[in-house]
Amino acid sequence: MSLLRYQVRADNFTPFFTLAQRSWATGEFRSEKRGLLGNMKRLLGWSGCRSSGLCGCIPRMLGRNLHDSASATCSLQYLPPIIGTATLPFDLTGSTALITGGTQGVGAAIAIAIAGSGGNVVLHGLRDDDAAQQTLAACRAQGANADLLLGDLAGPTEDCIGRLFDSATAAHPEINMLVNNAGTYIDVPFLEMDFERYQRTMQLNVAAGFFLTQAFARRWVDRQARGRVLFTGSINGQLAEPDHVAYDSSKGAVLAMVKSLCVALAPHGIRVNGMAPGLVKTPLTGVLETDQDLDAWMRLHTPNGRVPEASACGGAAVFLLSDEAEHVHGQMLLVDGGMSAWQQPDMPTQLRGKLS
Ligand SMILES: NC(=O)c1ccc[n+]([C@@H]2O[C@H](COP(=O)([O-])OP(=O)(O)OC[C@H]3O[C@@H](n4cnc5c(N)ncnc54)[C@H](O)[C@@H]3O)[C@@H](O)[C@H]2O)c1
Ligand SMILES: O=C(O)[C@H](O)[C@@H](O)[C@H](O)[C@H](O)CO
Fold it and tell me: What is the Å distance from ligand 2's center to 260 Cα?
């Protein structure tokens, strides 16, 4: 049993703190959970909060967001107003994520953001190459334990999922977050699409995430562990493109799966959400680096005028995985610069004028 005395300015925690904003919370916190007090100190350090020699936090936050069986007491003291806003750290300390397709692109950006938020990562990818090694190094540079597992998730479902699940849980039994990110698109006009390419798209983009989530959910339910699952969807799960019928169908399925899994797994304490990028720069969309016309067209059709690096997806992923999103279930968060909010971006102004 360890003891932490705390004194914290309440306006640093307004999202959680329903009491008077101009106040100090002081009190004691006892925990039997190893490492939790260290986490609390780190959390408070990050939020720039002043402490009374020792660090601490409000009991409500401890009880609700860290799921600890801790006891805490609290008293309040009225203080003059303090100007400034809180920054809330999304702390993943003590968590380990398996990220499929985590070696490059969007998956690597998610991995690096998780590492930067205190979590550990197990990257999964098709090959061990320079990109994979760079991502591992970037995660380790942030203090994370980082491992790499390889395998092809577009193969026969039970074999490839079973192999990844067995090797990941054998090496990292503590995995409590699954990021189903690996995906591919095959850009073929609908009338030319064949069964083999359709099936490969669906196997990787849909079936792999379905069965990997099932394997981890069974494990977490058995162990009464609160797992978290994040899918990488796409804006194409909600908006169509002519030559993307298989891809769009797969991402539409991911959107529906996030909602269905939420309903199936929330009663077990498992949270499932998705993050849907618009167009971001990754090896998959490498043409953007060389094709100025395409890049310019995409900027023109994105309200914030940007086609960002994949790192733009990291913050949304970390938020959805964090305890700060504890009541966020079954959502697909679009990270698209506003593209999906823009109705008929191609309509010329003179035609649009006729509508008004
Ligand atoms: N780049 C974008 O603009 C964009 C936009 C929306 C959604 N997405 C989605 O983001 C996810 C990642 O895309 P990206 O752009 O980073 O792609 P990418 O090609 O840069 O990276 C793909 C990752 O998946 C892994 N992978 C590929 N095929 C695999 C297989 N058969 N088995 C196992 N792993 C495999 C690769 O090793 C790599 O780590 C995908 O689900 C994609 O649909 C990307
Ligand atoms: O999911 C994705 O990989 C992206 O959304 C792409 O499909 C782009 O949106 C499209 O290529 C632009 O036209």
Answer: 24
Q: Residue 174 is part of which domain span?
A: 96-341
Phi, psi of 51 (to 5 degrees): -130, 165
Cβ of residue 103 lying under 6 Å from some atom of ligand 1: yes
Task: Say yes or no: ipTM exceeds 0.85.
Answer: yes
Q: In the listed set 19, 52, 78, which residue is the last one of a domain according to the structure?
A: 78
Q: How high is the pLDDT of residue 152?
A: 96
The pTM of the full predicted model, rounded to 2 decimals, is 0.79
Cβ(185) to ligand 2 under 6 A? yes
Domain presence at residue 355:
no
Q: Which ranges constitute the DSSP H helices of 142-290?
A: 157-171, 195-202, 208-223, 245-265, 287-290
Contact 209, 180 (CB under 8 A): yes
| Count of structural domains, the chain | 2
Convert the pLDDT of each residue in 115-143 to its tens digit: 999 999 999 999 999 999 999 999 999 99
CATH code where residue 144 lies? 3.40.50.720
Q: Are residues 330 and 222 in the same domain?
A: yes
Same domain membership, residue 138 and residue 68: no
- 284 CB less than 6 Å from ligand 1? yes
> Does the residue 87 lie in any domain?
no
Angle between helix 245-265 and helix 195-202 axes, rounded to 10 deg: 30
- 351 domain residue, yes or no: no
